[in-house]
């Protein structure tokens, strides 16, 4: 529900590390943010990290893909400080690809040289960017839990040997503010729901279920603007009987906000 000034209220459910910048960006684009994290980033080391580290240090991989600033942060956390400079030097002897300008900036701030960024900031964009150069190549992906295996399967289709290591996972926070967000949604106080990850989707509906709203919350969302970053996130919403009307081509929060505002404006124009 918009306020008296007709400013749309948007639910921002990104991790705490992104909340401040997301709120400022949303306000600058004409939204009233209601920011409540629905995931907590948690450092983890899976059974494939050591092999990834070894391939990088020995130059046995051709491309290393990072799809978020958190991906490089949590990767470096697992590298001992004493050899971190050597690890960065080893990355710089390889072709490092970032999925977006924001990820590129985070990599460069740590001293990692980035070969390129696709024109479309998505799994499809990464596949299209690399498709002509990966036949017979070894590609490593360091990232958090992904909503789909599209990137891995797409690169393999073009002849690459692909390895993935999960460098952080996403935990469901369970506090009063998460409950209050669900209550606000049920009261019709939110105009736009911005989902940036399939885990956020699942956590949102888990909270609604615990509060007894699992049958009603899909109706609330389907009567609002629902935006999702990527087809994997949209698919997670469909599994909960919610249609995402906004899926931007580029996987950036700014693009998600821009497309959401356009959808909101269009919807208001039809009233």
UniProtKB/TrEMBL annotation:
It comes from the Archaea. Residues 23-257 form the Tetrapyrrole biosynthesis uroporphyrinogen III synthase domain. InterPro entries: 4pyrrol_syn_uPrphyn_synt_sf (IPR036108), 4pyrrol_synth_uPrphyn_synth (IPR003754), UROS/Hem4 (IPR039793). GO terms for molecular function: uroporphyrinogen-III synthase activity. SUPFAM superfamilies: HemD-like (SSF69618). One of its GO terms (biological process) is uroporphyrinogen III biosynthetic process. PANTHER family: BLR5956 PROTEIN. This is Uroporphyrinogen-III synthase. It comes from Methanolobus halotolerans. The lineage of its organism: Archaea, Methanobacteriati, Methanobacteriota, Stenosarchaea group, Methanomicrobia.
